[in-house]
Design brief:
- The protein has 2 helices and 6 strands; from the N terminus they run ββααββββ.
- It has a 4-stranded antiparallel sheet with strand order 1-4-3-2. Strands 5-6 form a two-stranded antiparallel sheet.
- Mean pLDDT is 89; it is low at 1-6.
- It has a domain at 17-74.
- By secondary structure, it is of the alpha+beta class.
- 36% of the residues are buried.
- It is globular.
- It starts with 5 loop residues before the first strand and ends with a strand.
C-alpha cells in the first residue's frame, strides 16, 4: 500500500478518480511542477518518478487536490474522460 500525499494547485479533477500525470497536464490544467510537488511528498515512490512525472498515477482528492500513488515503470495508460480510472501498463 502506497503512502500518498496531497498537492493543491490550479488544476481540476474528479474526486476519487485515478489519473496519469500526462492526462492531468494535457486535459485538466495541472502543470508538471504541480505533479512534481505531489511526487516529492511521497517518499515511497520509485526514484525515477521525479524525472518522469507524466508516467505517475495520481488520485484526485475532493476535486482539486492530487496524491501521487504509483510510478508506472512501463507507461501510464490514459482511459480518457469518463468513469474509468487511468492505470499502469504491464
Amino acid at each position: 500500500m502506497a503512502v500518498a500525499t496531497t498537492s493543491l494547485a490550479g488544476g481540476s479533477c474528479d474526486a476519487d478518480k485515478e489519473y496519469c500525470g500526462s492526462y492531468l497536464v494535457k486535459a485538466r490544467g495541472w502543470s508538471t511542477s504541480d505533479l512534481q510537488v505531489a511526487i516529492k511528498r511521497n517518499n515511497r515512490l520509485a526514484p525515477e518518478a521525479a524525472a518522469d512525472p507524466l508516467n505517475v498515477l495520481f488520485e484526485c482528492i475532493g476535486g482539486s487536490r492530487i496524491d501521487a500513488i504509483k510510478y508506472c515503470s512501463n507507461t501510464c495508460i490514459e482511459t480518457g474522460a469518463g468513469d474509468t480510472n487511468d492505470y499502469c501498463g504491464r
